[in-house]
Design a protein that fits this description.
- Two copies of one chain form a homodimer.
- Chain A has about 150 residues and is mainly alpha-helical.
- The first copy, chain A, has one domain: Winged helix-like DNA-binding domain superfamily/Winged helix DNA-binding domain (Arc Repressor Mutant, subunit A, Orthogonal Bundle).
- In chain A, about 65% of the residues lie in helices and about 5% in strands.
- The first copy, chain A, contains seven helices and two strands, in the order αααααββαα.
- Chain A has a two-stranded antiparallel ribbon.
- The radius of gyration of chain A is 18 Å and the shape is elongated.
- The interface between A and B is large, with 68 and 68 residues.
- The structure holds a DNA duplex (24 and 24 nucleotides).
Chain lengths: ~150, ~150
DNA sequence: CGGATCTCAGATACACTGACATAA
DNA sequence: CTTATGTCAGTGTATCTGAGATCC
């Protein structure tokens, strides 16, 4: 539903943080999807490539933990990335259960493209906010997220 | 993925507003789902009941526009609500294409239950934020959302 | 006719669950 | 024996697309 006629949205919903967050996430998700689709990629691809670029070669399980992608989905996403030769998968000689996943030069180039797209998306998403306000929003969300990542006890 | 080991998350992701928003939305969505599931309901039910409560009886199309739910999904959600007698569907004598959907007394009681659950969820979700910060977050998200609901031109 | 409404069938993306074989 | 890994098949939710029938 694209234009829910702003003034008609129930006030009871409009003030609910959980509603605001999920609705904004829908917008963000669409912008991200569209931006990445233009380069024939999707969110999981960016997350995996970015993680590989920052931490270097890793097993699929480690990759999943760092990028927040379920191991079982890492498999499928890596299949797609390997097919396009953005990553290579080779058995780990030190632990024969593992695959060592490595980003290729082409993968790094693709990552740069995706980063560019995503930078534009952030700007479009946060258009109505000043730089200070964007920083505030980022800070607040980071704190909320950190809190919910903590209590694994 | 539940505990992505905070300090291992790529900084390149951790600073991306679109990532923060969608990740937070996942948390929020889980909390909401769990909270509503305890009363055998889901997000669509609350949105529809709240919209009916605030605007009164309406056609399914109008309901969809106001609550931001796709008309095609309104059908299914109303089936579930009607089955539990939280709403009634009756043909509109003035326009025979339409159903007039009305919330029942039981529906209103259910809505109160859902509101209570959701209030608790907001508190859990925003636990690390002060009241002022919660208001800031709400304000910032509202502005972002308003901006993206505007340009239907 | 064009346009709105209701309905159903299906598709997508993301996240998650359960099971299995293999190997540490 | 227990745990970790990779893989596959399947679930669930929120969203959207497309089609058809009905009616304005």
């Amino acid at each position: 539903m694209d234009n829910p006629e702003p003034d008609l949205v129930p006030t009871c919903l409009a003030g609910l943080p959980s509603w605001l967050i999920t609705r904004t996430a829908v917008r963000a998700g669409r912008l991200v999807s569209d931006g990445l689709a233009a380069v024939d990629a999707r969110g999981y691809h960016f997350r995996l490539l970015a993680t590989l670029d920052e931490f270097g070669p890793a097993s699929q399980a480690a990759l999943g933990r760092r990028s927040g992608i379920h191991v079982s989905d890492v498999v499928a996403a890596l299949n797609e990335l390997a097919e396009r030769e953005f990553v290579t998968r080779s058995p780990d000689p030190a632990d024969r259960r593992r695959n060592v996943v490595t980003i290729t030069a082409a993968g790094r180039r693709q990552l740069r493209r995706l980063e560019k797209r995503l930078a534009a998306v952030q700007d479009e998403l946060l258009a109505p906010l000043s730089p200070d306000e964007r920083a505030d929003l980022t800070r607040l969300l980071s704190r909320v997220l950190a809190h919910h990542n903590r209590p694994p006890a």
